[in-house]
């Protein structure tokens, strides 16, 4: 079977390698490895998402609630949030156990003790998130992707907001329409787009 970054247990030995990326407003050296999403660099979609996120002041009270990185890969989104907001609880989840291992390694080397790394079923049912940030795994297929979003978007707290980055050619427009029709309690719009990537925002109002 062909191995993908969304496989639970990638084949082959874990062979970490270092890359330098900009996270939390400064250059950071992190470890990545084969068998996870974008192991060579910070992918363009995630870089655009991090650049386009609103300032904390614009988010109001939700910026103090737990933040979820949905499908964390080697941890870029979660690490950036934890570096920028050291007082905030940050969760990083992924079905890929290698992704979780690398995210833990990166959190340790950056001293991010408030970053919690977990498999999806390890997150307590009563946790509600002030923010969800994600470069979602579009290539798992529409049915699986919709299942993921049905599981996690309802866990936005009152006033909570999700930001998803999706490439236009991979269905950003249709995904935005589906979220708006599926979650009628969320206000869905597209605050930014750049280089073929769209930021989809869903707010619980």
TrEMBL record:
It comes from the Bacteria. Gene3D superfamilies: Vaccinia Virus protein VP39. Keywords: Methyltransferase, Transferase. Residues 29-200 form the Methyltransferase small domain. It comes from Leucobacter manosquensis. GO terms for molecular function: methyltransferase activity. PANTHER family: RIBOSOMAL RNA SMALL SUBUNIT METHYLTRANSFERASE C. GO terms for biological process: methylation. This is Methyltransferase. It holds the Pfam family MTS. InterPro entries: RsmC/RlmG, SAM-dependent_MTases_sf, Small_mtfrase_dom.
């Amino acid at each position: 079977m062909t191995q993908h970054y969304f496989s639970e247990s990638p084949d082959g030995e874990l062979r970490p390698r270092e890359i330098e990326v900009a996270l939390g407003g400064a250059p950071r050296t992190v470890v990545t490895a084969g068998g996870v999403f974008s192991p060579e660099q910070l992918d363009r979609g995630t870089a655009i998402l991090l650049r386009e996120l609103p300032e904390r002041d614009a988010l109001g009270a939700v910026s103090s609630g737990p933040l979820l990185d949905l499908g964390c890969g080697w941890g870029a989104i979660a690490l950036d949030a934890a570096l920028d907001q050291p007082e905030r609880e940050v969760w990083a989840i992924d079905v890929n156990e290698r992704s979780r291992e690398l995210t833990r390694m990166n959190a340790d080397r950056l001293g991010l003790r408030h970053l919690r790394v977990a498999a999806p079923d390890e997150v307590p049912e009563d946790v509600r998130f002030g923010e969800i940030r994600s470069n979602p795994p579009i290539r798992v297929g529409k049915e699986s992707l919709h299942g993921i979003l049905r599981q996690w978007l309802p866990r936005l707290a009152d006033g909570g907001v999700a930001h998803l980055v999706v490439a236009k050619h991979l269905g950003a427009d249709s995904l935005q329409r589906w979220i708006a029709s599926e979650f009628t309690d969320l206000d869905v719009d597209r605050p930014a787009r750049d280089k073929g990537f769209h930021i989809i925002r869903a707010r619980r109002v």
